[in-house]
Amino acid sequence: MKSIIIGGGKIGFNLLKTLKDRGYNVTLVEIDEEVCRKIAEDVDTDVICGDGTNLDVLNDAGIRNADIIAAVTGKDEENLVICQIAKKGFNIGKSIARINNPKNVPMFKALGVDQTVCSTEVIADLIEYEFDSDICKIVQTFDRGAMILVEVTVKEGNRWINQYVKDLPLPSECVIASVMRGENAIFARGDTQIQNGDNIHIITNRATFHEIKKQLHNGGTQYAKQKK
Amino acid sequence: MYIIIIGCGRLGSTLAAELADAGYNVAVIDNDSKKLDALGSGFNGLRVKGIVYDNSALKEANISRATCVVAVTPDDNLNITASLIAKNIFKVRRVIARINDPSKKDVYKVLDIETINPTELISYIIKSKIEGDPK
Predict the structure, then answer these.
(1) In terms of CA atoms, which chain A residue is nearest residue B78?
(2) Which is it for the CA torsion B42, B46, B50, B51, positive or negative?
(3) What pLDDT, in 10s, does the model give residues A57-97?
(4) A203 and A159, same structural domain?
(5) In what order do the strands lie in the sheet with A2-6?
(6) Residue A18's CB: how many other CB atoms inside 10 A?
């Protein structure tokens, strides 16, 4: 599969290395000569120095035979123009654009860019997810951390809502001690149903705690999708 | 007739002043407020400061009412992006863009954007002036 990456910044460079490792035929286009030279020294691939929005440069990069084009420069307008050229001028099946300003996402979609990745939004979501520690926090540690008591606050969008305790996909090294529903403490059994607003107390260890956290968010990106 | 001018450099500001004097309704968008100020108090059109292809800037300039959009920034990619948005999203009837780098002419053509090419025009004028000189 032949792919072209436009933009040799951090994202472009790492994408190049990843695709190269997977055995793709990759050509990189970058406007800065110095950057081109560094990349060419580092990675054994075709590097073309030129403006990625110029038809001659894209022709040199072999756009006519390309299957995928990834526009990952730091300028949204540049990425948009590249994807539009690829689509309308060369009929490339797949074009992916990096979007720097999240405000531009709807505009890219409306103009028919197949795939967009908003780097700023992805990072912001991940940070937000890290900040969302109130969903899942350690209340008490026992025996110098061998055992911990964790409180999970169930909010809208939590996949545990309406599930029975016996059906929760929990790792083996944990026990649900109690569920606080308003003022009431419920000593949960298998037939207790989780509701929105519940505070669940779980006895577990640190390793399992991370597993539970991951399960609740599924790595942040999943969480970001759910939010929309 | 309502005309939006994108880019308030030498060409944009001159065009804005002339069209406004000729009695057209004019709006100018630029991301540099100093350039918008330079239009002077005599300019009675709308001035919008913002990223030139940004949805909120275009809406503030009332793009849905525009009969014509002219993209004359010194950056071809900005002109192309703004033109595509005006044409394909806001369905503006007439969109004209300025070509800065003559080698980008084909890009505008592929994307079906009406253009003016100042470099070509000026060199044509100079050439005909020289040719018009008595030998």
Answers:
(1) A77
(2) negative
(3) 999 999 999 999 999 999 999 999 999 999 999 988 888 99
(4) yes
(5) A46-49, A25-30, A2-6, A68-71, A94-99, A115-118
(6) 11
What is the interface pTM, i.e. ipTM, of the complex? Answer: 0.87
How long is chain B?
Answer: 135
Closest Cα in chain B to A51: B104
Phi-psi region of B113 (alpha: psi -120 to 50; beta: other; left: phi over 0): beta
- Is CATH 3.40.50.720 the classification given to domain B2-132? yes
Domain boundaries, chain B: 2-132
Q: Is residue A109 less than 8 Å (CB to CB) from chain B?
A: no
Binary contact (B111, A84; C-beta < 8 A): yes
What is the tally of structural domains in chain A?
A: 2
Interchain CB contact of A63 with B (< 8 Å): no
- Give the whole-angstrom CA distance, residue B79 versus residue B108: 9
Q: Out of A123, A140, A174, pick the residue that ends a domain.
A: A123
Instruction: State the pTM of this model.
Output: 0.73
Do A10 and A79 fall into the same domain?
yes
Which residues in A lie closer than 8 A to residue B51 (C-beta atoms)? Answer: 101
Q: Which two tokens stand for residue A50?
A: 């030129």
Judging contacts by C-beta atoms under 8 Å, the chain B residues touching residue A89 are 107, 110-111
Q: Do A77 and B104 touch (CB under 8 A)?
A: no
